[in-house]
Amino acid sequence: MKSLDKYCLSILTILYLEEKPLGFNELFERVNKLFGFSKPTLSIHLKHLLKENLVIKETETDSSLKLKPTKYGLNWNIVNRYVPTVSYPVKKWEELCSKKDFKTLASHLYDDFTVYCLLTLRYQLEALLERKDADKGLLLSQISLSTFIESLYLKIRTMLKKAKKEEIAELLKEWDAIVENYAKKYLSNLASSK
């Protein structure tokens, strides 16, 4: 597999986050807004991803148009083997943020991030064991983690845009308490294992 550059990774990230195929213009709107793509750049990198079988091209056969619309989506047959979904945690964060339940939100953010890091490592190890598609598995598990982190930052930034400074300070306080608690447990376990 030829190496995938930042443009390829950005396209895969968008398709992964959307969890559905997108038309060329829909995909262009998203990658242009988030990553500043041009249409020729998107076209070149989509062709590369199609060739690598990471993205599939679907033609809507039931359309009444002469020129049938085409959509691009992840090849989930490959992706599902290596990548957990981020949609459930993101919905949970939005729900907790709308309720201004920052204590529970901080706990979820920490736990979700930890789980995704561990899942990414697991998928990488599985890919290495299988050897078949190992490069794709490693890449997709990294996309999973980077997409999780990217969606975390985007969603938190969006959700907290309207929050008051006191609410953000409350979230940080809860976050610090959780991190301190886990750090104490980790150091205690480390000391007792010696």
Describe this structure in words.
This protein has 194 residues and is mostly helical. The protein folds into two domains: 6-79, Orthogonal Bundle (Arc Repressor Mutant, subunit A), CATH 1.10.10; 87-192, no CATH class. The protein has eight helices and three strands. The protein has helices at 6-18, 24-35, 39-51, 76-79, 87-98, 102-130, 134-160, 165-192, and strands at 22-23, 55-59, 70-74. Strands 1-3-2 form a three-stranded antiparallel sheet. Helix 1 (6-18) crosses helix 2 (24-35), helix 5 runs parallel beside helix 7 (134-160) and helix 6 packs across helix 8 (165-192). The protein is globular, with a radius of gyration of 20 Å. The N and C termini lie far apart (44 Å). The mean pLDDT is 79.
Shape call: globular
Strand-pairing-aware structural class? mainly alpha
In the sheet with the most strands, the strands line up as: 1-3-2
Number of spatially distinct domains:
2
Q: Strand percentage, roughly? A: 5-15%
Radius of gyration: 20 Å
Order of helices and strands: HEHHEEHHHHH
Question: What is the CA-CA span between the terminal residues?
Answer: 44 Å
- Parts with pLDDT < 50 across at least 5 consecutive residues: none
> How many helix segments?
8
The count of strands amounts to 3
Helix content: over 70%
> How is the biggest beta sheet arranged?
3 strands, antiparallel
* Mean pLDDT rating: 79
